[in-house]
Hints:
The complex is a heterodimer of chains A (286) and B (308). Chain A has 2 domains: 14-193, Rossmann fold; 199-280. Chain A contains 12 helices and 9 strands. Chain A has helices at 14-26, 40-51, 75-83, 98-103, 105-111, 139-143, 145-150, 183-187, 199-213, 219-241, 249-262, 271-280, and strands at 30-33, 53-59, 71-73, 94-96, 122-131, 152-155, 160-163, 168-175, 190-193. In chain A, the strands form 3 sheets. In chain A, strands 2-5-8-1-9 form a 5-stranded parallel sheet. Chain A has a two-stranded antiparallel sheet with strand order 3-4. The two termini of chain A are 30 Å apart. Chain B has 308 residues and is of the alpha/beta class. In chain B, β6 (267-272), α9 (281-286) and β7 form a beta-alpha-beta unit. Chain B is elongated, with a radius of gyration of 41 Å. In chain B, α1 packs antiparallel against α2 and α5 packs parallel to α10 (298-307). The chains are: A alpha/beta (286), B alpha/beta (308).
Amino acid sequence: MPDRRDGLAYVMSPKLELAVDIAYATGRPLLLRGDPGSGKSSLAAHIAREKDARYYEHVVTSRTQAQDLLWTFDTVRRLADAQLGRPVKDHDYVEPGVLWWAFARRSAARHATDTESNSSRLPTHSVVLVDEIDKADPDVPNGLLTPLGSNQFKVTETADEVRLEEGSHLVIVTTNEERELPQAFLRRCVVVWLDHPDADGLVAIARKHLDTYEGGMTAPDEELARELAESVVELRKEMEREASRPPSTAEFLDALRACRELGITTSSPQWRELRDMALVKQQSGG
Amino acid sequence: MTTQVWLGDLLRAIAAGAEPRRAAEMLGLVPESAETAAAEPAAVVTGSEPAAPTPSPAPPEPVDTVDTTATALGEVPMLPELRREPAGVTDWAPGPSLPLPGADQSPEPTPLLAPRTTAAVLHALLATLTDDGEPDVEAISELWAQGKPMRILPRHPRPTLRFGVQVLVDVGEAMELFARDQHDLVTRIRAVAGVETTSVAYFADVPTRGTGPRGRRTWRDYTPPSRGTRVLLLSDFGIGGPVFHDRRGTPAEWREFITSVRRAGCSPVGLAPYPPSRRPAWLSDSMPVLLWDRGTTAGRASMAVRRG
Lengths: 286, 308
């Protein structure tokens, strides 16, 4: 599985550790900026695992509205029930969103139709991932200002007040810079930019992944990872000069897996093709 | 090195005890009197052409040697300069100089839209309405009351940018003045509407003559974008430019373009850097056009777009 959200393998830089600490200390959301594939979305699951916290994620799309992260109201089902003459209670059609679960787990559990997937984790601590918020209309970040700032919101259909019950939570928001975020939203976040790791950093990430998922890193693996990491660093410089998208850390890991499986090294005849397919990924042919 | 005679020499001579008239005559500053000429004809050295004006009143050049005039004048030894300081020397301490403005330090031009509200104006201008807002209870009640089947759940319209934006930039002669504004606005549009969902094409005078993503070599016949996309024109719509502008887009060409955009299910809207009073009537009747200026607010943009 190339993109795992189990939080098992993640190498945190000192800068990122500090950013997380600041977000916890201030109670502000942590906004992660950086190129795609730089590990923004994986961080939340890793922190949740490290702290044994409940983990919730919402991947934002162009149709997402701010309310979707708080609650959804099943209008169609309620309408159908009303048409069929069934007894209708508005509370039955409210489904808690990720922020409701993070703020008030017990209250959310009373409304939820599904069972909670995080029941084995600490009830007093949660980590929420709001992934790719830049995909949504600009209204979405603005609509989250009050809930994120005050840790409470009101369900309009039922007039229920949802407030922070107990414990602490960390909201991690990611953006791929698809569009500018409102200044009011930025002001309320702890913002950190995830830089591309250098060759040593890439090798460390490779080691962590191989140790976690592949049973360990052998000496040939390390040599291969080093070769690939240096190639990726060079390739990044070259592609940044050409104003092209540089290869990401995730693509480096893909290339490493492919090289290990297929027995390809940077001196192999197939290396150039593998590099073009797994790392360069040119938009146009030729 | 010779030194031109000037008033300072006369003052020095007088200070040294010379008779002023005599000294002035000797220095050639005044015409020599008849009696002096008769008494000492050989003493006239520098005053042979006293009426000739000095061509330029430049300050005297520094001299390091004794002025030979003194020798010529014999008994007037006070004229040679002993020490001269270079011109322009003062006791002022040099202060730090301001850095010279480089190519990248020129002041930024003031944008046409107010910077603080540009994002809101663009959002209002570029968003299209889609029926996926809150359920429209009144419409639902109406259907129920009439006993009609509800095939589609009526919802309130909601503005969204998810259908994308096509920006058509007029690079014709009449819009050359606004090239920088167009470039900056396209950058802002990408920031508001999203890089992936914003496409930019260029044209000259009217889009039906050809559009393309880069220079004129890339221009082809205009094709409207996918259904629902907002089409924004940054153009003067033939208002500006020279009076006898022979390539100005005609109303028929503009109407043809607007019709093709609407037929594709897209909604055109324009930003023109000229006031409504200069817009032709056919334009105001054909599509919403907003003034590209400071006075434009998000509310005005929203109203103009809704009026369609």
